[in-house]
Every structure is written in C-alpha cells, then in structure tokens.
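User: Hi! I'm a student and our assignment asks us to look at how structure tokens line up with a sequence. Could you show me two examples?

Assistant: Happy to help. In each example below, the sequence comes first and the structure tokens follow. Example one:
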Amino acid sequence: SQQKAAAAAVPVGVMNIFTRMDVAAPTASNEDRERVMTLLGAIVIQLISMLRNIALDSNGRKQLQKHRSVCTMCSLMRPFKAVPELLLACSRAVAKLSLQEPFRTQINSRPVYLQCLSEVLVLEGNQCRKLMDGEQVEWPDWYSWSLLSRITFTLGNLTTSNAANRMALVDSFNCVRPLLSLLQACTGSLTALLERGPEVLAACEPEPE
C-alpha cells in the first residue's frame, strides 16, 4: 500500500535531514549538535518501531526490500552511537530482517553496512576489555546485553554461509579480540554465579517482617 511504502522510505529522509543540518551549521557547538541528535534520535526510534511492525506482514516486507530500509537502519547506528535507545531499536529490526535472505543480500551489498554493525560489537567489547584490565570504566551499561544479543545474532546470520563476511570481521573490522573479551567476561560471570548461586539468591531474598 502507499502508506507502507511511505513509512519504509521515511528513515532515509530523516537521515538526509540530519546530514543537511550538520553540514549547514559547521559552527554549531557540540552541545547544540548533541541536542539535535537526541531530538532526531527520538523521532527515528518511533519510525523504526513502525518499520518493525510493517515487517510482520509479507507485503510490508516487500516494501522494505524495495526501499532498502535494512541498509538505512544499519547506517543509522554510526551517527547515533550516543543514543542507545535508537541503537536498540535498529538492532531489533535488523536482527529480525536478517533471518531472510533478501535482506541479508542487501546488507551484504556494501561492506559499510556490516562495518556499522561490527562497530557496535567492537565498542562494547573494548569497554569490556578495559574493565577486565582494571581500568575505571562504567560497563556494562543498561542496554549492553540486549544490544549485544541482537548484534551478535545478526552477525551470526550474516557469517553462517558467507566467507567474505567472516574474513571482513576478522581482518578488516578487528572483531576477534572484542568477541573473546565478551566471551571471557560472560563465561566468568556465569561460573561465578554457578559457584555462588545459593549465596547470591540468599542475598536477594527479602528480610522477614
């Protein structure tokens, strides 16, 4: 329908508006830029949520393919790194769409889309490594695990039968070390919980009245 076609094309327009605003105001302060990004991010979050709903319908998915909306959602992750709600919205939609070959083909059409996804993984993994090395960093954030579960799910779908993508993640985008850091942190935490399970549960129980 025309409504579905229009909704599928909206994020591209938002991205163009963001680019024009950024170029048109080269003297804008960092505070102004951050404010604009936050406002645009809030709009895009709602638009992405609409697209996720549209993707539930077969005709809607055809429109999303026509407008290459999955590529737009990958691209949005880079300029809006400071808006975790937007990253989550995009990662949820892309993860769902990556289950289908036509959308995987679109993501694979340009290396930058895979790179945008991998950058999220690398950023979280590097923060994890800093924490493990004893640096004073605030990690994980409230959104880290939800975001990582969807990004790794998508990257898994994109690398299962695609050797070029596997090589890109290893050689071009340096994902192995961040992946291993996250694996070490998660397995270490699981081991500690298993060993201290009763103690942890007891500490969480409310005090008797």
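Example two works the same way, sequence first and then tokens:
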Amino acid sequence: EGIITIPPSTIHVRDLTITDEDFAPVVSGASFQIKSGECVSIVGDDVEATRALLRALAQRTGQTKRVAGAVTIHDVSGGGARVAWVPSSTDHLDACGILNARTLVAYAAKLSGHDESHVEACLHLCGVTSRDRPVNYSECDEPVSLRRRRISLACAAATKAPVLFIDDACGLTSTGRDALSSVSGASIAKCCSALAKKGFCVVAAAPGI
C-alpha cells in the first residue's frame, strides 16, 4: 500500500465566534484543540453553522461571515502547518474523464513538489485500490459521486498537507438526506479514520446530521 509520512500538527481554537451579515451568532465562544491522528466531525442541523465553522478553521471565511477569536495551525516546530481543502463538489474532475485515479493523485503530488513514492498509500487509504479504473468508470460497484469523493480526498492527501479540511463530507447538501442510507457516509468516514491513523489531522463538516 506504499508509505506516507506526515509531520505532526495541531489546530488551536480559542473563543471563536462567527456571526452572519446581520451580526446574528452562528458559532459562539468555541474553544478546542485538534491534534495529528485525530479525526473530528462538525455535525448539526444548521448547515450554515457547520460549514461556517469549518471555513473559519481553515481560514477560508467568506465575505458574509464575521469571525472573532483565534485559530492557529502549527506544525511540530511551532511554525504554520500546510492545509488542504477538499471541496463539497467534485465538478473539477469532470474534465478528467480520460485520466485514471492514479494519474490524478500523482499529478496532485507533483504539483505540491513531491515525488510519487506515496501515491499508492493515498490510493489505498482512500479506498481507491485500482490503478487503471477511470474517474467515470460506469461499472464501479459504488456510486460515481462517492468514487469521485475518494479521488478528491486522495489528491488532497497526496499533497502531504498534514491538516485536511473536508467540506460536506456526507454529501447531504448536494444529494439530500438519502445519502445517509447509502454507503457514502460510512465510506468517507472510514477513509478519514484511515488518514488520521497515518498522522493526518482530519476535520470534516457533516451538515444536516
């Protein structure tokens, strides 16, 4: 399955408060710490609140959200740790239909300045076990949307960013609550757990749960 080594990192959050454009609190006074090897899910019925908290942790707050408090992401040396963002949409893979999963993950590794020595590990950890199965493989035994989510997550892991932020991990905002009755939610949770065991710090938003 290959080898992947991830440097330790920690997310520190102190008195984090997020308000909307009307200054109504979305998140109020949150303080916590997330370390390497941990997998944390942000859940709740309030879709905007869960996703706003994830964006604030990843320092990707939109113009309509106001954030107070402190969020720091440090590596073992005390400096800033790199992060990777896994978007809720996999539309960016539409143009890659002729490329197989391994090629996409290897390209992500190359773009981030790494060789391909850890690509097989990323494919294995995210449940993408075939080198030659293309993104839009119609005979796959799982939904295409789940397959794409696996590949998107593997691409993020291939950058060796020690902190991974996953937006809408169960796909509820795009596919509806029926996603929970499929294998999608459990499969992505298994991928996140596997990545955390390898030393990643994984934070996923699961709005609607």
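Here is something you could point out in your write-up. Residues 175-181 have pLDDT under 50 and may be disordered.
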